[in-house]
Amino acid sequence: MNSFSKFDQFYIKIKSNRWYWLFSIFCRLSLAYAFLFAGLVKIIGEKFASGLSELHPMGAYLTALHNTGYYYTFIGIAQVTAAILLLIPRTVALGALLYFPIIVNIWLLSFALRFEGSFLTSPLMVLANLFLLVWNYDRLKYLLPYPHFSNCEIFQKPKKYDMKFPVWFFTGVLASVILIFLLARYGFDVMPRNSLSDCRTQFSNTLNESAGYDFCDCIHVNGKPLDTCLDEYKKVRE
Fold first, then answer.
1. What are the residues facing 17 on neighbouring strands?
2. Rounded-to-integer distance, Cα 53 and Cα 205, Å
3. Percentage of residues in the chain with pLDDT exceeding 70?
4. How many CB atoms within 10 Å of residue 159?
5. Hey, which residues does 162 pair with through a beta bridge?
6. How far is CA 49 from the centre of its chain?
7. Confidence of residue 149 (pLDDT cuts 50, 70, 90)
8. Cα separations in angstroms, 200 against 34, 194, 197, 203, 215
9. Contact 86, 99 (CB under 8 A)
C-alpha cells in the first residue's frame, strides 16, 4: 500500500466525521462573509477602510488602489465571486482555489505594512482556506503533479456521520489561533497603528518615548514609508 492510498483512507475517515464537516461549513461561511463585505465595498466604488489616513502606509496603498478605477472593481468582483462559490456546495473547491491567492496577498500585505486591521484575521483566513483546499482533496487531486492517481473517487456524503470528537485537531486549531494572536500582539515591538494617538500610546512612559513619538510623526504626520521610519527609529532608540 503506497502513501497515497494510506492518505486516501485517512481522508475518507476525516470526511466521515461530523465535527470536521461542521468545521468546514464554519470556514466556508466565515470566509464567504468576509469577502462578500469587502468585495461589495469595491464594486460600489467606496474606498475600503475609508477612515484610515492616507499618510498611513496601508492608507496610501488603499487610496492608490481605489484610484485604479475598473481594476479596483475587478478585485471586488473576484472577491464576491469567490464568496458565492464557497456558499454553493458543488463549487466549494473552485471557490477555495479562487480565494487562496487573494487572501495570501492580503496576508502578506498586512504583515509587510504591519496593518492592525487584518494583521490577526488574514493569517487565520489563510489557514481556513487551506483547510477547505484539503477538505476538497478528492476534487482537486487531479490538478496535483502525481505520476498516477489513487482509486479514491469523489466523496459521497455518508448516511451516518462518525460523532467522535477530534480532540487533537481542535486543540491544534485553538493553539494556532493563540499563536497567531500572540504574534499579532507581540510579534513586532513597533507598530504604526491606525492613528497618531494609538501609535504614541505604545511608547508612552517607556525609555524610547521620544524616539517612538518621532516614529509616529514620521508615519502619521510626514507620511514617509514604513521602512524609512523604522530605520530612523532604530538609529535613535535606546
1. 162
2. 26
3. 93
4. 5
5. 17
6. 16
7. low
8. 30, 11, 5, 5, 9
9. yes
Provide the grid cell at 32.
464567504
Q: Which residues contact 20 (CB under 8 A, 6 or more apart)?
A: 14, 135, 166, 169
Among residues 104, 135, 128, which one has the least CA distance to residue 176? 128
Question: Which cell goes with 188?
Answer: 513586532
pLDDT of 152 strictly over 80: no
Mean pLDDT to the nearest integer, 207-219? 94
pLDDT tens for 24-76 read 999 999 999 999 999 999 999 998 887 788 899 999 999 999 999 999 999 99
CA distance 238 to 235: 9
Q: Phi/psi of residue 182, each to 5°? A: -65, -40
SS (H, E, C) the chain: CCHHHHHHHHHHHHHCEHHHHHHHHHHHHHHHHHHHHHHHHHHCCCCCCCCCCCCCHHHHHHHHHHCCCHHHHHHHHHHHHHHHHHHCHHHHHHHHHHHHHHHHHHHHHHHHHCCHHHHCHHHHHHHHHHHHHHHCHHHHHHHCCCCCCCCCCCCCCCCCCECCCCHHHHHHHHHHHHHHHHHHHHCCCCCCCCCHHHHHHCCCCCCCHHHHHHHHHHHHCCCCCHHHHHHHHHHHCC
What torsion do the CA atoms of 217, 219, 223, 228 make, to the nearest 10 degrees? 110
Instruction: Supply the pTM of this predicted model.
Output: 0.90
